[in-house]
Amino acid sequence: MGCWLRHGYMTNDFTNIFINAINLIVFTGYILAFAFYQPCRPDEIAADVMGSIAAAMQIISLGGQIYEIKRATSFGHTEYIPAELQFGIFCLATQWTIFGILIGNYYIAVANFAGLLVNIVTISLYFIYPPLTWKVPIIGTGPQQKKVE
């Protein structure tokens, strides 16, 4: 909602600005009312609910990376997937997965393991569909050889 409001400001679309400003006000009121009338839960239940929400949101956010996988397979190359970022995500997801397992927080472990799996699939695409114009650091694949006809 806030992003659409900002988009409206950037494009001077007053209908978009009006609708999303009203929606933002109503949504803020809803959140405040929800917070006010929300029953107090024991800390353990509240932590489980918040852990479930956080893990679900993190798993849903993998949609962008899954889209990049689909895009790379349809284009036949990984030209537009930054390798350094993928290797960084691999290190972070591995660390967070191990951390979640070590402390027994399975919300952290499961969400980051899902991210790690998607990241491994993305990195494997560099072997199947190398980039067109650059060489992938660390693994050394690419650039693709042009076909001689």
Give a written overview of the molecule.
The protein contains six helices and no strands. It folds into two domains: 38 residues; 108 residues, Monooxygenase (Up-down Bundle), CATH 1.20.1280.290. The mean pLDDT is 88. The radius of gyration is 21 Å and the shape is flat. It is an all-alpha fold. Helix 1 packs antiparallel against helix 2 and helix 5 runs antiparallel to helix 6. The termini are far apart.
Helix content: over 70%
Q: C-alpha Rg, in Å?
A: 21 Å
Regarding CATH, which class of the largest domain?
Mainly Alpha
Give the uncertain stretches in residue-range form.
none
Q: How would you describe the shape?
A: flat
Q: Any idea what the CATH architecture of the largest domain is?
A: Up-down Bundle
Q: What is the CATH topology of the largest domain? A: Monooxygenase
Overall SS class: mainly alpha
Please write the string of helix (H) and strand (E) elements.
Answer: HHHHHH
**Ends apart, CA distance between termini:** 52 Å
* Distinct helical segment count: 6
**Relative strand content:** under 5%
Number of strands: 0
Tally of distinct domains: 2
Averaging pLDDT over every residue, what do you get?
Answer: 88
